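=== Discrete structure encoding ===
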Amino acid sequence: MIPTLLLLLGCQLAGEILSRGLHLPLPGAVLGMILMLGLMLALPRRVDGMRPVIVVLLANLSLMYIPAGTGLIAFVAELKRDGLALAVLLVASTAASLIVGAWTFGAVARLTGNRGVE
């Protein structure tokens, strides 16, 4: 299982490096999938060893979305009672995060002498 997961993550990492390094218009994940397809076509024997791990991953992919949905359903009463306050807080915290992030980026740019992206 570990070699297959390392291969999957390695292909995605290689795709991200290619996408960002070569300034390609494709997302790194897409390039990683293309690399994985190339490897699977070049090494068909490896596919049979990967199949059990990939089947398990695909079968349980929906589990990654369940916690958020369950949290919403479990706290419907609180959402009805405090929904407006939560929405205002969510918008305010997002705006504050963006402002602090932009300020930090500007401060670091001033400290390092970078005035723009070349």
Remarks:
- The helical segments are 2-21, 28-42, 44-59, 66-74, 76-112.
- The CA atoms of residues 7 and 96 lie 39 Å apart.
- DSSP finds five helices and no strands in the chain.
- Residues 76-112 form the longest helix (37 residues).
